[in-house]
Amino acid sequence: MSDKTYLVAGLGNIGAEYSSTRHNVGFMILDAWAQASNISFSSVRYGDIATDSVKGRKFVLLKPSTYMNLSGNAVRYWLQELDIPMENLIVVCDDINLPFGTVRMRLSGSNGGHNGLGNIEELLQTRNYSRIRIGVGHDFSMGGQIGFVLGEFSPEQLKDLPYISEKVRKGILTWAFAGGQKAMTELNTKLENTEKANNQ
């Protein structure tokens, strides 16, 4: 396949009980992208896929059905199946180390203790792939991490997710068309009230 094809993997867990949880923000970002672009997901091997074409480039949106801890199975399979180069992979996931509303993009790096990124790193045998972390906050006491990430966003936070989703979508397009450095400049800021107001 052409080097103008990109795999955008949003991480999460399948099942209605997880759909609105913080750990599923990667799925939420891709769902918002699909809705904005009027495209739909189809169930395929290891996940659900939707394809968006933008100015001659193809973006394959992947929501793995393997559960978070085995996300690498889906990512590795679809990279190979579609013959997409590693530099055209970007992963979107939650991050409890970042305040809610903060977005951080990196072109490589450690998994930061995130099980989904850890499995992708293990199966791809590299840390050199792009990732976007969506801050979900860390308002939990010691030992409460699992319950927190599997808990739901507050109503106020849910109102902000469309703005965060659009920011991430635009950042991924910048990454594809203008490169990672420019995309990081755009994305690595906190979503401010003034910015949200400008989107209304």
Structure description:
The chain is an alpha/beta fold and 200 residues long. The chain has one domain (5-199): Peptidyl-tRNA hydrolase (Rossmann fold, 3-Layer(aba) Sandwich). It has 7 helices and 7 strands. The protein has helices at 25-37, 71-81, 115-124, 145-149, 155-178, 180-187, 193-199; strands at residues 5-10, 42-44, 47-54, 57-64, 89-95, 103-106, 130-135. It has a 7-stranded mixed sheet with strand order 2-3-4-1-5-7-6, with helices on both faces. The model is unreliable at 193-200 (pLDDT under 50).
Number of strands: 7
What is the number of helical segments per DSSP (H or I, 4+ residues)?
Answer: 7
Global geometry: globular
Q: pLDDT average, as an integer?
A: 88
Q: Span from first to last CA?
A: 38 Å
Helices and strands, in order, run as EHEEEHEEHEHHHH
**Percent range of helical residues:** 25-40%
The level 1 CATH classification is: Alpha Beta
Tally of structural domains? 1
